[in-house]
Every structure is written in C-alpha cells, then in structure tokens.
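Summary for the steering committee. The consortium agreed at its last meeting that each partner would contribute one worked example illustrating the joint modelling workflow. Our contribution is presented below. We chose a case with several input lines so that the handling of multiple components could be demonstrated. No manual editing was applied between input and output; the record is shown as generated.
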Amino acid sequence: MTGTTSSGLHLPGYQREDPATRTPIGSAGYRSTALRAPLRTPVDLPQRLTEITGPVLGEDRIRPGDADLTLRNGGEAVGQRILVYGRVLDSSGRPVPDALVEVWQANASGRYRHVVDTFPAPLDPHFDGLGRVVTDSLGRYEFMTIKPGAYPWGNHHNAWRPAHIHFSLFGRAFPQRLVTQMYFPDDPLFGQDPIFNAIPAAARHRAISRYDLERTQDNWALAFEWNIVLRGRDQTPFETEDDGDVA
Amino acid sequence: MSVNPLDVPDVTEPYQPRSGQRGTGWLTGPLQLGLTPSATVGPYLAIGLTWPDGTWAAEEGAEGGFWIRGRVFDGAGEVVPDAMVETWQADPEGGFPSPEDPRGASSYPGFRGYARAQTSTGEFGIFTLKPGRVPDGHGGLQSPHVDVSVFARGLLDRVVTRIYFADEAEANAEDVVLRSLPDDAARQTLLATPGEDGYTLDIRLQGERETVFFAV
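What follows is the complete predicted structure of the assembly.
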C-alpha cells in the first residue's frame, strides 16, 4: 500500500501476501494450532511509518564462528557436513543486502539441544545447532552445518518431522519479517507432515532446497542452495489522490 | 505468474526473466518471485532466537524507561510458555532508528526500538521508552503505539498486533487505527495499563477477549 503523509512524504509500502500461496496461521492437521491460532479475521492495517521501517540488525549480532555450526566446544560435530547457501531477495528480484539470518536445527540424530526435547537420541557435545550470518552486498549468505536428522514429535501416531533447518530473517522493514523452515529435496517424510503440508501446494517447492554438485566440496561437504524471497515493494503505480506527493 | 526462487539466474548477471516467461513477447507485468512461505517457529525457538540483550528496546537505566509486561494465553485460558514476542516502535520524539523512514533515520541515544522476549517464565517483559506520536498519513498523528509480532509453536505464521497505552486517552481517541476498530471491547484488547514498573498487557490468541490482530 502506498500512501502520502501530511508532510508530503511518499511512503513506499510492501506488497500483501497472496492468500492462495501463503501459509495459513492455523491448520487442522497440526494439533497445536487448535487452541493457539486466532479465530477472528485479522483487521487490515494500512502500512504507515511504523510498518515501513524496521530495526537495523547486522554484523554486530554475529560472533566469530557463528557461520560454522560444525565446530563447537573445541571439536567437530558428528554427521554429514553440508554447505547451505543462497540469496535473500525481495519479490521483485532485488537482493536484500546486510540482512541478519538466524538459523537453528536438530543435530544429526534428530535431537535439539533444548530442555523440552525428550527424544531419546544422543546429544552431540560439539553441536549446539545455532548459526548466524549476514547477507553480503548481493544478498548472498552461506553457512556450514550438519544435515539435521528427522525426529518424532507426537502430533499423531508415528509422526516424524522431515529434516529441516529453521530460518529467521528481518529484511529491512516490518512486513518483511519471516520465520520459516528449509527442507531437503525428495524427503520421504513430506507426505505425512502436517507442517510442511500446511503450505499451499503451489508454494511448497519454495521451502525445499536444491542439491548442488558444483558447490559440493570435494572430500569435504555436500552443498544445498536455498533462496529466500521476502515481500517486495508495492509496484502499483503511485497515485496522487490526496495531497500531492513530493517523492 | 511467479518465478521459482531457485530459477533466478546467477547474481553476477543483471536479472532477466528466462526465455519462455514472456509468452506474448510483451512483458505483461513486473517480475514477481514467489514468496518464501512462513513456517512455525516451533518449540525450540530459544536455541536460535535468544539474545542476551533481547529484551532491551532501550538501554538499561535509560531516562524514562519502563517495562511492558504481559502473558500470552491460548484458547483454553492457559499461559503459553513457549512464545516469543517482538516489538518495534518509534522513539520518544516520534522517529525511527531505521534508514527506511523517509524522514531519515533517527538516533535517539540509548534507544534501539526493537526488542524480543520469550515467555518461558510465564510472561514476557521488554524495557523501553514511551514512543512519540507519528504522522498517520491523513494529516493527523497516531497515538503512541508499539507494533508487536507473536511467534509460537502452533502458529504457522507470526500474528501481528499493537500495544497502546491506557493513560493516553486523549491521543487514543484520535488514533486512526483504534478508531477503525468495531467497538471499545476490541480497543480494550490493545490498551496496556499502568502497573508497578511500567505497563502490563496480556495477549489472548483466542477466546471471548481475543486480542485484535492485524493483517499488515
């Protein structure tokens, strides 16, 4: 939505998400949504100054070593080393540079280092499952990690989450905030996973990374590419309907 | 028609849609990449999203600083202990520490404007300053407000709401967003009330007093 303030400032808004391809807040197959997903229709909030701005979070949130999850506590994590890389773009194809990307995941055996994870699979003293990187001037990011294992989660009988890595991004403004999960190609667990299948069918492929032989490192690590697309600027032609714009 | 994000050519080349995407030979609309779909933050968000300084939208000891505290409730009236609440707001002079503000980024000392807090103790708490009034785009000023995102297991996307301040009755009465809500009961769900060390406001994901959530 594009608007003009009383002082004549042009407010560049962000495109709304297409309801046909956006993940709904709640989904019947995912049990925890039943008591948590709001039931009333959200109220439309036109984007004003608070909504077209956002915090500047970058290099100062990163510590040395945050981009390599395979080396923690003075040793090497167990599992298949993978390079995960890609670009952060907006929906008009523009790179999102200097953007904070936070990731977290289970270890190779499918266990999270978290007090409520009781899956009887071993923790790895050299894997904490936390990574942080910042995109470069072309919106590129990459980190080295271990391929996460699948794990059971009790949503239904014999429910298993497909292997995934959690991602959190801010972009440059409030509407671009995104928390999501990246999957791996051809996972046999997709069919029974209500979280993956809550994504409308037409958009599911966007959550799946692609194996990349070219970036695979000989004698070291497999590579997976995943591009992340955040909401772009509204592209509707600017109309000067109220007080003339000076942008 | 949107393009698969993985089919975007290498960044070192200027971007052009691939052949076959302009069936008529005419570009019928601007390029649109399909958005990455959101997913739940899950029960283990603390691994990836914990910051030692997360709860401080303003520095500890900042003049005029206070806490906004609250709980998040589910539809059964139970406290949600694994949510994360994020806040974003203007500084006391109505500026944003963001280069995206067309008026220019503000630089209010000791103020970040952004905070994130988890509810593992049963409540969230963020330390901040009272936001100033911000133009509403219709010649008026919005009442002091904080934009809020709530993430939790069981929510496949964030939900967005606002915090207003009950002791700003006059400004609240003029606020374009509050005025757009159907009734006082709806407005009431957004009003933080003065408390011991700041303000308190509970967020209700469902129920009779379900918080007003916004589509942004």
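Chain A is about 5% helix and 25% strand. The longest strand of chain A covers residues 81-90.
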